[in-house]
Specification:
The chain is mainly beta. Helices cover 13% and strands 33% of the residues. The protein is built from two helices and seven strands; from the N terminus they run αββββαβββ. A hairpin with a 3-residue loop joins strand 6 and strand 7. It starts with a helix and ends with a strand. The relative contact order is 0.26. The model has no long low-confidence stretch (mean pLDDT 85).
Length: 76
């Protein structure tokens, strides 16, 4: 399956352990030179516009912790 970052960043990241929405991907990391997905970065909790500006906490999710990239959500 091929997926652009523009399509990926529109999907909510859901923690299946507690059902909490971690936000949408803000960054994607690739391993070099293989070019495979290494992980994604998300805000880490629901943030509104104001807290997103002042709070710089982010959560890195390794590829091995990504269970499924679905049509509208990413399960971790």
């Amino acid at each position: 399956m091929e997926l652009s970052f523009n399509e990926l960043k529109k999907r909510d990241v859901i923690n299946i352990a507690d059902g909490r929405c971690l936000g949408r991907p803000t960054d994607v990391n690739f391993s070099f030179p293989s070019g495979t997905l290494a992980g994604i970065t998300v805000p880490g909790r629901n943030q509104n516009f104001i807290t997103a500006i002042f709070d710089r906490s982010k959560l890195y999710i390794d590829r091995k912790n990504i269970i499924k990239i679905g049509g509208d959500v990413i399960l971790v």
